[in-house]
Amino acid sequence: MAEWTVERVAERFREAAITAHRLPPVRVQGYFNTWPAIRRMPWETLGAEPSIRRFPPAPETVERMLETMRWVLWLEEEERHLVWMRAERHRWRDICARFGCDRTTAWRRWQRALSIVAEALNGNREADRLPSRSLDKTGLQESNNSY
Fold it and tell me: What are 97-104's contacts with CB under 8 Å, separation 24+?
């Protein structure tokens, strides 16, 4: 198989985010409606919003999404949030507000998180021992304030 790169990992996370949004909504089991479906006249639905029809994803894409979701176990919690927010195409401005950092810092953290995943996928076992795995060295700070 080809070498995993940061770009391929980012594209795979993006595909997983798209697939997750295409999944059917979760519904409470056991409740049902006995009323018949009402067929509306065209003049009744003139100002209504059209209903959103989502086609369910193919089983292969769901399998790739589940595989991609297992990759996030190699990341710290804040890195997971960052990677997933970027996969969902959140603006850098929103990401920076969420993490309290500058855009270039957020981009570097995102690149570092993707490189950790790529190194682990390429079989580099040193990915677990990289010095930037601690929260202090990546700049991601954990709030351990005890007031």
Answer: 99/140, 101/139
